[in-house]
Amino acid sequence: MGYQRRRPETMEHLEPEEVVKRAKKKALALLERQDRTESQLLSKLAEKGFPEYACEEALAYVKSFHYVDDERFARNYIRYRQDSKSRQQLKLDLIRKGVKKETIDLAMEEEYENEEKDMILALLHKKRFDPATADVKEKNRIMGFLLRRGYSLAEVKECMRQMEHER
Fold this sequence. Notes:
single chain; mainly alpha; 3 domains; 9 helices
């Protein structure tokens, strides 16, 4: 005899209070493993088969304990990724995760103490870019690398010129 996976129960025969209770429990379990946005949590609960009213009540429940906080999520996301991604790329990622634009803008203001030019220069140094010895092919390769990360062409060129003048 092998292990048999229990079939998921349908929510139809349960009392609404029981459905809400299970949704709250599932929301807590989901947040235990990973921080999520409100949107992500709602879609995960809906994916698990919970009706909309149960998802909304579960969200309100976890929000009351500050387990879900889109502003905190956005700040943390920006803080841990600002060295490797541009502001535009971070903003797009957060929008995809369901964070509101106003929340993103607020988090960006709070978390961005380094300007993008500083980050571009840091990446150029990390890639050991030397404008004095770089040929056109290498300059284009580095430029493409930075543009793919969402930095503007004007800022990239300005930083490359700045490095040339530093030498």
